[in-house]
Amino acid sequence: MERNQWVSSLTALLLCLIFVVASEASDWSILNQGGGKRKLGYSLKNYCESWRMNVEMNNIRDFEIVPGECVDYVGKYMTSTQYKVDVERAFEACRLYLSDAFEPRGDGGDAWVFDIDDTLLSTAPFYKKHQFGGEKLNRTALEGWMKEAKAPAVVHALDLYNEIKNRGLKIFLISCRGESLREATIENLVKVGFTGWKGLEMRGLEDAEKGAQEFKAEQRKMLIKKGYRIWGVVGDQWSTLLGLPSGKRIFKLPNSLYYMA
Ligand SMILES: *[C@@H]1O[C@H](CO)[C@@H](O)[C@H](O)[C@H]1NC(C)=O
């Protein structure tokens, strides 16, 4: 080996080493805020729990991917007993609200709105194969997975769905899934037990440019114009719940896998 070649190989090796050390350091930079001098008195788990909590509170918005250091944490949470208990608690609040406040008019105008993904059907099996939100969403891959119509029901969702239906409320499903997924979506819903909804609103071509929040608020507006009273809206994304007109009550389910604006 010529001397020049040897020197450039050594330089490349050194640069590699510096890069590895620097990226290790930057992985932990969030825990070393304050110039790295102040040791934060909490763990990575504390940090990730706080990240997740602030996603739920809609303080942290528009994240494209789950931060790399929290991927394990989010994956564990979304497949944990705690997640199931949290969802059950939210559904319990729906039940309590209905038994306290629901006054059926008996005119067929009482309505309830559900989102579909991660409210009735779980996308967790898809995200499990994609680093639990730790990699940028590939919409083609997600829609391909949805077309297979094999999403499981969100835990306890079917019980609540049936209870609401049996109270005589008309159920409307408002989803950001595109119309091209209608057949697969119906197949999937029926396969896991969801039947007897009054309306299934999906995004058509004319809605392609609209954000989720705008699209969903428009759909609710149309329901109200037709004379429906929306008693409640359940969703895992704030874009399902915010925007006017709303329901009399909104219920947020946990989801820190992705953010849909
Ligand atoms: C997205 O997913 C599709 C279908 O699985 C695949 O063909 C394509 O290469 C993926 N694109 C990227 C950028 O990974």
From TrEMBL:
Pfam families named among the record's database cross-references: Acid_phosphat_B (PF03767)
InterPro entries for the chain: Acid_phosphat_B-like, Acid_phosphatase_pln, APS1/VSP, HAD-like_sf, HAD_sf
Alphabetic keyword roster: Glycoprotein, Signal
Coiled coil: none
Segment forming the signal sequence: 1-25
GO molecular function terms listed in the Swiss-Prot or TrEMBL record: acid phosphatase activity
Protein family per UniProt: Belongs to the APS1/VSP family.
Name of the protein in its database record: Acid phosphatase 1
